[in-house]
Amino acid sequence: MGCKDKYEDVALLLRGTIQKKFREANSLPWPPTADDLVMSLDDLLPSDLMRFLTLIITGDADFEKSEKTGRLVLSISQTSAVL
Q: How high is the pLDDT of residue 51?
C-alpha cells in the first residue's frame, strides 16, 4: 500500500473492506420483520474484520473456534458502528 505507518496500512485496508461490504449490503425494509433481523455473522461483517478482531482478542485468527469469541467480535463491531 505504500504507507509509512503499519497501523495506517491495516486501518485503510479494513476501512476499504467495510465500505465495500456496506455498498454491497441489501437495504433493510422499514419496519423490519423478525425474519429480516435474522442474519449470520458472514452477512453482517466482512471476514477480514472478523479475523482481525478475533486475532486481537484471542491471538488466533480462527473465529469459528468459539461461540463466545464470535459474540464478542459481533458486540465490538456493533459498538463501533454506533460511534
A: 86
pTM of the model: 0.66
- Cβ of 73: how many Cβ atoms within 10 Å? 23
| HEC per residue, the chain | CCCCCHHHHHHHHHHHHHHHHHHHCCCCCCCCCCHHHCCCHHHHCCHHHHHHHHHHHHCCCCCCCCHHHHHHHHHHHHHHHHC
2 pLDDT tier (thresholds 50, 70, 90): low
Domain segments of the chain: what residues? Answer: 6-82
